[in-house]
Amino acid sequence: MNQTINHFIQNIGQLSQNIAHMNQNISVQPIAFDARLSHGIASLGDQQTIVYDKIVTNIGNGYDSRNSYFSAPVNGVYMIAVSGMAEHNEYIELSIVKNGTPIGFVRSGFTNDYESGTTVLPLFLAKGDMIWVRHVSSTLGKIHGYGWNTFSGFLIATV
């Protein structure tokens, strides 16, 4: 009888250790970033990456401010948002790029006032997948600064 009780106690101890180990593995730190363009860009080049220079939030350090891309730290479903604003009476077209392939677009301009365009994409990203924003070569224009152009995202859930 004592052997059986000792055996159950050992099994319970092992199960407790296994549960603790599993909880450590599923504990994921929050991931979120928000970057903005603090200045205008007067001349956008062909396929030019937009460098968002004002970092508001970079929880989890997934956003690379030197190269202006987000790299997914873990596999998961992410929400990515891009807002673009052209200068007065100008036009811009931006593409949201995943690992070199455009997956969404933002357009703004050709009005007598400032207008902005926004795209929000829920995406599955594998660890290491990269997202960035670039100018589409078929358009000309000037991009407005002062925080009106934004690139942001966050992890919804790990997969």
From TrEMBL:
Protein biosynthesis among keywords: no
Compartments, record wording: Secreted
Record domain C1q: where: 26-159
SMART domains hit by this protein: C1Q (SM00110)
Keyword tRNA processing appears in the UniProt entry: no
Record's keyword terms, sorted: Secreted, Signal
Gene3D superfamilies: 2.60.120.40
Main location: secreted
Pfam families: C1q (PF00386)
Family matches, as PANTHER family: C1Q DOMAIN-CONTAINING PROTEIN (PTHR22923:SF116), CEREBELLIN-RELATED (PTHR22923)
Name the UniProt record assigns to this protein: C1q domain-containing protein
Organism of provenance: Tegillarca granosa (Malaysian cockle)
